[in-house]
Amino acid sequence: MEGTKAQFIDLATCPACAGQRIRRYKKGTYAGRLTQDEIKITDSQYGRVWDLSLCLDCGHIFANPCPSPDFIFSLYGEVCDPEYEEEAAGRSRNFLPILESLERVIPERGALFDVGAATGILLDLARSRGWEPDGIEPSSWAVKTAAEKYGLALRHGPFETACLKGNAYAAVLMVDFIEHTPLPHEAVVRAQRILRPAGILVLVTPDIRSPAARIAGRRWWHLRPAHLAFFSRASLQALLSRAGFTIIEERRYAWTFSAHYLLSRKRLTRVLLKNSAMSSFFKRIPIKLALGDSFEIYARKDRNG
Ligand SMILES: [Zn+2]
Predict the structure, then answer these.
(1) CATH of the domain at 169
(2) Average pLDDT rounded to a whole number, residues 74-96
(3) Among 31, 65, 123, 133, which residue's Cβ finds the most Cβ atoms within 10 Å?
């Protein structure tokens, strides 16, 4: 992206728990300046991370120095990722278990807000199940796609600074969002404000200490420069309780991909997929990766902030 230069902020406190016992955790393997391609959801170059710090109080691991919020917001504003939408059926399949779990926790359906709604695949599914869909997305391309493809009027911009009505939503969803924002505390506080009393926040985010992450080592697919933070169970607890939430249910998340998507992660098989018949065949085969390497957390709003 031309024009907007990356700026970095040295963090002296933990973004999750506000603790001050911070230690250098790992030297980064990424020295770029973050481009649009690298923050796409479908980015396939793994193993690259920023210089990481560790919070000794809650175990949170985070980019430090961290790219500035302004820089991150403007970068996401310009993302264009048609490959993401091509996998719409598979992605919808991924979101179904989340909504089913949410509906067990909160039986009466109402207004549901998706943070970082991308092209609206989750909201389209939620609407078909009786929820009133609302959401926000920084990418102009994604907002336009959501309107054209699903007839959804997404709010446009970063959630962390959006002006939204308080006490208005039964549920707020942050699926693979919290690890991308330089302002996780502000985001969760905002979610707390817009939820009605006893409303539910759903959070899905990678677990760097999961067995899958340990086995994959430097090739773990969540090690990418778009991820500014890696939460632990304790740092999620700290982040949520600090903002007025109680965790009421948690699961391990297993993503489903099409065979096409998985094969296209490998350079060799990308050549094979250039054949269009082969390509559409593989797009129809779902493969469940039962890695369980993400947290899936359901937290209830406890008090008005
Ligand atoms: Zn901490």
Answers:
(1) 3.40.50.150
(2) 85
(3) 123
